[in-house]
Amino acid sequence: MKNYLIFPALFSYCVSQLLTDTNRVIWILLGILILIRVIFLKRPILILLMLMIAGVVWIRGDNNIPEITSEKETLIIFPDTIKINGDLMSGETSIDKQKVKFFYRLQNQSDKSNWKSLSDPIEANVTIDKVERIQFNRNPGEFNYRNFLENRSIYYSVYLSKIDKIKVHQPGSVFEIINVLRIHMIKKLEKLPRWLKIHAQSLLLGYSSGEEKDFFNNLSVLGIIHLFSLSGLHVLMLVTFFRKTFSTIKITREMVDDILLILLPIYGILVGSKIGIWRAIVLSILGIIIGKLHWNISKLDVFSLTIMICLFVQPRSILDMGGQLSFLLSFALLFIYDIKNTISMTFKVNLVSLPLICNYTYQFSWLILLINLIFVPFFEYIILPTTIVAAIFPKFFFWNIVNQLFDSVYIFLEQIAQNSGFVLITGKISLFVVLILVVLSLFNLEQKSFQNKYLISYLVIFTMAVTYNKFPLAGQVSMIDVGQGDSILVTTPFNRKTVLIDTGGKLSFPKKQWQKGTKSDQVTNSTIPYLKFQGINKIDRVFLSHKDADHMGNLPVLLNKFPVTEVSFGEGLDDNLSIKRIIQNNPKVKFTHIKQGDRFRIADTDWDVLWPKNRSIGENGDSLTLLASINDKNWLFTGDLDIDNEKKMLEDYKIKVDYLKVGHHGSKTSSGDEFLRQTSPKLALISAGVNNRYGHPNKETIQRLDKLHVPHMNTADYGMITWYYYPFMQQNKIKTFLKGEVIENNRIKK
Q: Who has the most CB within 10 Å: 83, 116, 168, 195?
């Protein structure tokens, strides 16, 4: 059965993918194809083995998740799981034998200092305020935090209202003893200068404080994040270093291997049980055991056994990008033809990982090949050895000089990563296309010649996939779920033009200095990922309805992180101090003010400015109100326009609309009876936050809509709401991110 174990390994992986909620049909079909192939091999034992392992993976992965009902609990908290951002502390612990994500609002600066200086695990009595399932993401393209945590067996968020009676926890198992050692090592490495600390903690212990998020994002864009994510490469180098060191003092290979059988699992626990590490550790242990038993097993079968063992221990271990890249690149190295040309080899290996990277990040850097050729040797011969020496001898005086060298290197890399000219935004590539590209790239690895049919097929299919994203057949209007705020994206088909109406934003409340932390924003978390998801590399025009933070608060972030050609707003808003500052800070962006009566055409859409009538200061009643004719449908975007100004606007315009963006998130101060009667919308869309403090949409507004038989949809219920139109087919439909397709050709589906 030589080289046949890959079939049960791949079949088990297909079964593990069924534990998620996406692309199940593709994985079922692929699993059936593998099963048919094995049946034709006429090897009953192989079929039995395949079904048994797949069954175990399914049973172990398809857990029934019991509810957490405790109101008070004694928790054990390890410092290496804690993250503190301003006055918010989060971390991981266990309740009722389940891993959970906990959150706690720190009470004062002294409380914060005590938690930050914690160096031992603690036991504490806690009062649980709220328990809820990890939330789904609410827009396409967002990082799927729920899947990320569920793949680590975390299903609940727990909000604590009180933590008291804190005492040091005494480790009660080998795992806890090793974890305490890890914590002490992390604390020791914190004394190193900035970059050496980051290197040592991430490369030797698999720990990240979360403070260098932008740094790791830059590495991801440049395609070298795998070097700084503790993985099999580092285990291989450490094992090689260990063996060479002991060989110099005349210790036999057999004894060294016996020591490694003990040390490798301990190291796997020490670095936080990362899947990439365990893949390499299992592979190394299997290699040692097979060598001792003198079994003749191929590299492919050893690799297949590694997959099955990892899936048996943790069925969800290969369901995210890190685990998939780790195994995929290891699999690729089994097939690569003996190439002495480093450039050719690097290029071919990058082709293997490229479809997967684009499937998750929707982009890649043009310089990925060059960066890998230059930076990989720098990493292997400078960064990694320096990191090991610095961890052993942290008090050497010249570490500050070395840190300055790294600082210069990373500033240069940051400039490259943030230069949009070096990045191709590909958009989301479908799983079916990704699988085809991966198979072609693996065949390409075995080819002696650089130019071959597999490479040509790969490049043609990849180009077609990206072109399809860049020149879509459908236009759309998307109400992005930015919580309690507004942000609406309008795109046209074919030679796409992109318009964004408002950016969303959060109201900020006064805080003491110790309470302030890194703020998250909807543009970074939702809008930009969605733009990249679609393959959009710039916004042609941004409209600002008025000055409120929940409509334009994220504009500075958007202009800083994504190319924008023009920003337009109501006449007079440029007197606002915030707008003045934004204009001064963005000299390359065109800023224009518009007023009632202005008209313009964007691709195949016509736009009319209905309000404000006079120069204004950007209050709710001054909201920029736009009427857009899109594929023979009228859309009305009203910002936070109030009832009084709705009436005044209707004195100048007699309009009927198909789709209405309900004013002021459904507040009772907007969308009056007279306005709704005259405009007669066929569908009303509301952008409001889940359980928002304002009670939007207001009951009175909903009653007005219901009285006039106007169907309505709310982002709080549906997540992102997107209307698609197809010019050549005269069809339109609405899809929602959380509930799928609900309306087709203005007909509500039952």
A: 195
Distance of CA 701 to the CA centre of its chain: 36
pLDDT of residue 750: 37
Cα separations in angstroms, 634 against 494, 608, 661: 21, 11, 11
Q: State how far the Cα of 463 lies from the Cα of 87, in Å rounded to an integer.
A: 47
- Please, what is the end-to-end C-alpha distance for the chain in angstroms? 53
Whole-angstrom distance, CA of residue 520 vs CA of residue 525: 7
Is the distance from CB of 618 to CB of 576 less than 8 angstroms? yes
What is the model's pTM?
0.90
pLDDT in tens, 372-410: 888 888 888 898 889 889 998 988 888 999 999 999 999
What would the 3-class secondary structure string for 138-180 be?
Answer: CCCCCCCHHHHHHCCCEEEEEEEEEEEEEEECCCCCHHHHHHH
Cα distance between residue 636 and residue 212, in whole Å: 42
Based on the number of CB atoms within 10 Å of its own CB, is 165 exposed (0-12), middle (13-18) or buried (19 or more)? exposed
223 three-state secondary structure: coil
DSSP 520: P
Q: How many residues does the chain have?
A: 750
629 pLDDT exceeds 50?
Answer: yes
Residues 6+ apart with CB under 8 A from 727: 475, 493, 604, 631
pLDDT tens-digit map of 50-90:
999 999 999 888 667 777 776 667 899 999 899 999 999 99
- pLDDT of 732: 85
Determine the Cα angle at 561 with ends 555 and 566, to 5°.
55
Residue 266 corresponds to which tokens in the numbers above?
A: 């301990």
**What is the overall mean pLDDT for the chain?**
89
d(CA 291, CA 288): 5
- Tokens 């301003």 correspond to what residue? 86
For tokens 């982009």, what's the residue?
363
Comparing CA positions, the residue from 60, 274, 268, 326 lying closest to residue 152 is 274
CB count within 10 Å of CB 95 equals 19
HEC string of 474-502? CEEEEECCCCCCCCEEEECCCCCCEEEEC
Place of tokens 């313009």: 600
Task: Give the span between the Cα atoms of 20 and 653, in whole angstroms.
Answer: 51
Average pLDDT over residues 576-580: 90
Q: Return the SS3 of 111.
A: helix
Q: What is the pLDDT of residues 669-720, one digit of tens each?
A: 999 999 999 999 999 999 999 989 899 999 999 999 999 999 999 999 999 9
Count Cα atoms within 13 angstroms, Cβ side, for 524.
13
> Strand, helix or coil at 333?
helix
What is the pLDDT, as a whole number, of residue 384?
83
Q: Yes or no: say if 207 and 185 are a contact pair by the CB < 8 Å rule.
A: no
Distance CA(316)–CA(148), nearest Å, equals 10
Q: Is the pLDDT of residue 223 over 80?
A: no
For residue 337, what pLDDT band results from cuts at 50, 70 and 90? low
The whole-angstrom distance between residue 396's C-alpha and the CA centroid of its chain comes to 39
Give the count of beta carbons closer than 10 Å to the beta carbon of residue 588. 8
Cβ-defined contacts of 290-299 (< 8 Å, 24+): 291/257, 292/254, 292/257, 297/2, 298/2, 298/3, 299/334
Q: Which residues pair with 736 in a beta bridge?
A: 721, 740
Q: Give residue for tokens 């079916």.
A: 432
The backbone torsions φ and ψ at residue 216, rounded to the nearest 5 degrees and listed phi first, read -70, -30
